[in-house]
């Protein structure tokens, strides 16, 4: 059922990019700001539209809103094919939501060179919508890179501490990850013999003529390393806390919240269905690496952080471990849980980065030891921060709960030992989350905090900050109370025969 | 060519086949004549005339694309006309025009005589265009020498600058060595192929077709192998591939910026035109693939690694571009290696060359605006704060460098992607790994340049008495602005929608 006279997916990609182009061509600042409001809202509205009509719209192999545009490279099997399946749709919605919130937060941030800031953010937004709407594997990668470039520049120009170093490190790590992933994707293309980058064609072809087992193992390993860098899989994670610590808030929201999910998304959409034997070979090492590295070691590292933003950065690395665990199980429940967790984590980490910056405006520091008693002058901020922390820990009522639950349920069948360590990780995340919350909001004000308060009395959250935070929190709660809104399509997509074959026969 | 052949050519109206080259040569001579006739204060118009002549030739070429000669030999087999040849002709004309645009900026600043510059540029371009269609080893040597000698003069054109003169001298010495190697290789091939005691000896050993037949009949001849290696060495000098890249940094730095751009793009492309004629699919040396493939593979790998690693430590942007150009040569060589196995590689090389043309000229155009009167003195530090002072130049620079680095959505990414695909289909997987390492390393220095333009702010040196050490920037004029804008836009558009160009180049 198509109710719009145009392709919603293409419009969601093209509108922010076109707006960025218009701003680049020298639109005056006042009009740029107005255009940016519209350009951040349009993808969200279109994403909501696709979510609402998803069930009712006709599907081809699970993909709704399917369209194909030629870019003149059909002979090598490259074309801009857009569509959403049950896995892509929730993430498409996530990109719309977080993009809108990050955009609104950027518009009120009074950043220096605001026009360039908005322009880059819009490019990022367009790229993100493209990542999750692409059915063509090459365009999946293409849009990811498109969204990645603004990150490099934004960290470098508007970044905080160590921005030059952080920008450089981020660039090199992420380029390395992207190039390895590209090599893996090209290898799949070349070795499959399908002569097409179209994911649907690749699935059909490889379902009939699977690659031999050793090759699948090698390709999966290559993709795992490449995409692992992008998703901060231990021990390739060191760019993430540093980069997020330095990145400007809106950029950190979009990158940690949405863009980073590209790696997991590609593993789920491309690697699992196309390389089932490869997944079977790697499932156990991946599970142990994720649980010992990302969950346990990074969990303890997060405990030791004395800087709010770094702490959020590390906690985001830790939570990626749970998503990897879900992928390692390979079952519909586990992978579905990972997808759900990706959406939930995207919303909650974006909210945390947003609030951390708002805290910084009031305390002039990110150092946890120098904060205290912010709940008295800023009760709304404290309430939001508490809610975001609870969501991050995975309390029932928030979306994260369902994701973690599904992962744990699937993980128990996979390996009880891994599950035990993973559950212990939740305790760690509760400790550092609650401790940080207490240090920021409650207790007596530190001398340094009093000093700052004397010069700039901290005000409560302004409405321009509340709206984006509310958007994210509402989504977190809505999914917490009504998980079926996205879990049904996710499950339907994973239960389809193409991916059911991906369930590992071996433990 | 004998007199009879010339008469025959005239009678058959074969001159039409090289009409574009004749037009360029005509304009070149006209420039010299007008310099004598026109009063000195009107000499500025000659630069415009040169640019207009190139554009006119390009238009003529496009309108008469299928000249009716495609797929046929002319001038007794000296030239062979093909679609690839037409493509490269257009490529060299575009490069020459863009060089003119940059030269208008820098020559005015240096108060240099202009007419000779454009004259030599036109001659050089005409020679390259003939080179792209050559079908005869002597024709190859003569056109290569014509363009090289013109470049000797152009490199040392800034005659009051010691750096330019040094660059010229180095280029002459290295060029002479490479010409010697090439000629020796040709001589060996001629001698062997013309030896009547060998099976299948050629009646016309200089002609590609005859020589190829001889080489096929004698696929393991030692002297022929030696000749082939020497010819390849001579060509490797032109494209600046390892281990024949030693002249690159000094010459690129010393030469005037437009000449550096022309060297980096057109001269490199000319080298690849020759290489494709020699080692491409079904070309002259295809029966010696057992020899050329390992040699070219080794050169590609070494160029990729050396170029990128050496560029890491450069602070002078011209040297940086020169060394990164070595790595681009490595990429293209990878394409040439793959061309033996998959027909797609040929299109990939042409696409890569066009993407490189767009990106490199965008960057050189920005450099011409940022540099001062001393062309050799172009440090990375000079770019500090460019984004604040001139967002337009910084934007063009970012697009250009991003495309050179191969970042999507720019044309350079598509070029690299096609080369990757071709290399993978040809089974050169180890090479692919080397190329990926090269890309990651290259990000560091390209990004460092962008960082200088965006993140750093220019501060006056501590002793203010010494004055600012950074040359004043040239304001962006209309022609240069439009040209740079078109180049940047083309890189973006082709990256997003490689359609027509990609279809035309890569998918034929």
Proportion of beta-strand residues of chain A: under 5%
Total E-strand runs of chain B? 2
Shape annotation of chain B: globular
Report the sheet with the most strands of chain B, covering strand number, pairing sense and barrel closure: 2 strands, antiparallel
Tally of separate domains of chain A: 1
Could you say which structural class the secondary elements and strand pairing of chain A correspond to?
A: mainly alpha
Output the radius of gyration of chain B: 22 Å
Structural class of chain B: mainly alpha
Domain count of chain B: 1
Number of helices of chain A: 21
Distance between the termini of chain A: 42 Å
Number of strand elements of chain A: 3
Helix share bin of chain B: over 70%
The whole-angstrom Rg of chain A is 22 Å
Spatial strand order of the main sheet of chain A: 1-2-3
**Beta-strand content of chain B:** under 5%
The largest inter-chain interface, given as chain pair and residues per side, is:
A-B, 34 and 36 residues
- The averaged pLDDT of chain A comes out at 85
Biggest pleated sheet of chain A: 3 strands, antiparallel
Low-confidence stretches of chain A: 498-507
How do the helices and strands follow one another from N- to C-terminus of chain B?
A: HHHEEHHHHHHHHHHHHHHHHH
């Amino acid at each position: 059922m198509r109710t719009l006279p145009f392709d919603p997916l293409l419009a969601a990609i093209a509108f922010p990019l076109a707006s960025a182009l218009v701003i680049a061509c020298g639109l005056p600042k006042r009009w740029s700001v107005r255009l940016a409001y519209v350009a951040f809202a349009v993808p969200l509205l279109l994403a909501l539209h696709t979510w609402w009509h998803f069930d009712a719209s006709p599907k081809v192999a699970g993909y709704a809103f399917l369209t194909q545009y030629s870019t003149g490279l059909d002979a090598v099997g490259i074309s801009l094919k857009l569509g959403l399946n049950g896995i892509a749709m929730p993430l498409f919605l996530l990109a719309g939501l977080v993009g809108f919130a990050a955009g609104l937060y950027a518009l009120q941030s009074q950043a220096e060179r605001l026009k360039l800031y908005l322009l880059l953010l819009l490019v990022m937004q367009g790229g993100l919508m493209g990542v999750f709407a692409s059915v063509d594997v090459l365009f999946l990668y293409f849009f990811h890179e498109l969204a990645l470039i603004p990150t490099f520049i934004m960290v470098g120009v508007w970044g905080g501490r160590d921005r030059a170093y952080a920008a450089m490190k981020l660039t090199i790590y992420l380029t390395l990850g992207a190039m390895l992933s590209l090599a893996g994707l090209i290898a799949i293309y070349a070795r499959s013999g399908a002569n097409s980058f179209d994911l649907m064609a690749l699935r059909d072809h490889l379902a009939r003529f699977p690659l031999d087992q050793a090759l699948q193992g090698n390709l999966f390993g290559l993709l795992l390393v490449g995409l692992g860098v992008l998703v901060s899989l231990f021990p390739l994670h060191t760019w993430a806390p540093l980069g997020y610590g330095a990145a400007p808030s809106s950029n950190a929201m979009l990158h940690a919240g949405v863009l980073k999910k590209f790696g997991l998304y590609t593993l789920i959409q491309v690697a699992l269905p196309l390389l089932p034997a490869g997944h079977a070979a790697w499932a156990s090492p991946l599970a142990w690496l994720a649980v010992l590295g990302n969950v346990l070691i990074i969990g303890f590292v997060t405990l030791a952080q004395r800087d709010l933003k770094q702490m959020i950065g590390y906690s985001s690395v830790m939570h990626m471990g749970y998503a990897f665990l879900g992928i390692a199980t390979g079952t519909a429940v586990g992978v579905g849980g990972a997808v759900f967790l990706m959406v939930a984590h995207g919303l909650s980490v974006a909210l945390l980065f947003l609030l951390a910056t708002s805290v910084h405006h009031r305390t002039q520091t990110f150092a946890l030891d120098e904060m205290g008693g912010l709940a008295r002058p800023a009760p709304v901020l404290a309430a939001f921060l508490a809610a975001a922390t609870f969501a991050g820990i995975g309390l029932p009522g928030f979306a994260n709960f369902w994701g973690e639950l599904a992962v744990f349920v699937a993980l128990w069948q996979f390996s009880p030992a891994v599950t035990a360590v993973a559950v212990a990780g939740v305790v760690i995340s509760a400790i550092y989350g609650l401790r940080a919350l207490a240090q920021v909001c409650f207790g007596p004000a530190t001398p340094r905090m009093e000093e700052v308060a004397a010069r700039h009395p901290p005000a409560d959250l302004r409405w321009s900050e509340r709206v984006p935070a509310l958007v994210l929190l509402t989504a977190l709660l809505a999914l917490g109370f009504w998980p079926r809104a996205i879990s049904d399509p996710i499950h339907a997509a994973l239960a389809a025969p193409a991916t059911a074959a991906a369930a590992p026969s071996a433990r | 060519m004998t007199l009879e052949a010339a008469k025959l050519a005239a009678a058959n109206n074969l001159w039409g086949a090289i009409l574009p080259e004749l037009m360029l040569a005509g304009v070149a001579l006209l420039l010299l004549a007008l310099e004598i006739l026109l009063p000195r204060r009107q000499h500025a118009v000659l630069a415009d005339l040169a640019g207009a002549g190139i554009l006119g030739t390009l238009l003529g070429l496009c309108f008469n694309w299928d000249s009716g000669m495609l797929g046929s030999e002319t001038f007794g087999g000296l030239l062979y006309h093909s679609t690839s040849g037409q493509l490269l002709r257009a490529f060299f004309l575009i490069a020459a025009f863009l060089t003119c645009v940059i030269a208008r900026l820098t020559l005015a600043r240096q108060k240099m005589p202009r007419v000779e510059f454009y004259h030599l540029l036109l001659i050089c371009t005409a020679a390259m265009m003939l080179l792209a269609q050559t079908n005869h080893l002597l024709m190859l040597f003569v056109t290569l020498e014509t363009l090289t000698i013109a470049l000797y003069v152009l490199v040392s054109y800034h005659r009051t600058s010691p750096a330019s003169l040094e660059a010229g001298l180095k280029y002459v010495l290295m060029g002479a060595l490479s010409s010697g190697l090439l000629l020796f290789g040709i001589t060996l091939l001629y001698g062997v192929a013309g030896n009547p005691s060998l099976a299948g000896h050629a009646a016309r050993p200089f002609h590609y077709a005859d020589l190829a037949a001889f080489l096929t009949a004698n696929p393991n001849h030692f002297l022929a192998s030696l000749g082939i290696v020497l010819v390849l060495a001579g060509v490797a000098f032109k494209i600046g591939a390892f281990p024949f890249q030693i002249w690159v940094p000094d010459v690129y730095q010393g030469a005037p910026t437009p000449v550096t751009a022309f060297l980096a793009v057109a001269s490199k492309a000319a080298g690849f035109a020759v290489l494709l004629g020699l080692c491409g699919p079904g070309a002259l040396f295809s029966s010696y693939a057992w020899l050329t493939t390992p040699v070219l593979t080794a050169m590609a790998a070494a160029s990729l690694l050396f170029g990128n690693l050496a560029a890491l430590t450069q602070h002078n942007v011209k040297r940086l571009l020169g060394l990164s150009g070595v790595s681009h040569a490595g990429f293209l060589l990878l394409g040439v290696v793959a061309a033996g196995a998959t027909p797609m590689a040929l299109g990939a090389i042409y696409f890569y060359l066009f993407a490189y043309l767009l990106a490199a000229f965008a960057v050189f155009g920005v450099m011409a605006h940022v540099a001062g009167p001393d062309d050799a003195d172009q440090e990375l530090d000079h770019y500090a704060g460019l984004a604040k002072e001139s967002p337009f130049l910084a934007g063009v620079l970012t697009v250009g460098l991003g495309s050179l680095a191969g970042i999507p959505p720019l044309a350079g990414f598509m070029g690299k992607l096609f080369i990757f695909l071709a290399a993978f289909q040809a089974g050169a997987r180890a090479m692919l790994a080397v190329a990926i390492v090269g890309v990651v390393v290259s990000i560091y220095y390209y990004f460092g340049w962008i960082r200088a333009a965006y993140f750093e702010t220019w501060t006056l040196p501590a002793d203010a008495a010494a004055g600012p050490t950074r040359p004043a920037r040239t304001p962006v004029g209309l022609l240069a602005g439009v040209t740079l804008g078109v180049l940047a836009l083309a890189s973006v558009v082709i990256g997003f929608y490689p359609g027509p160009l990609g279809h035309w180049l890569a998918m034929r």
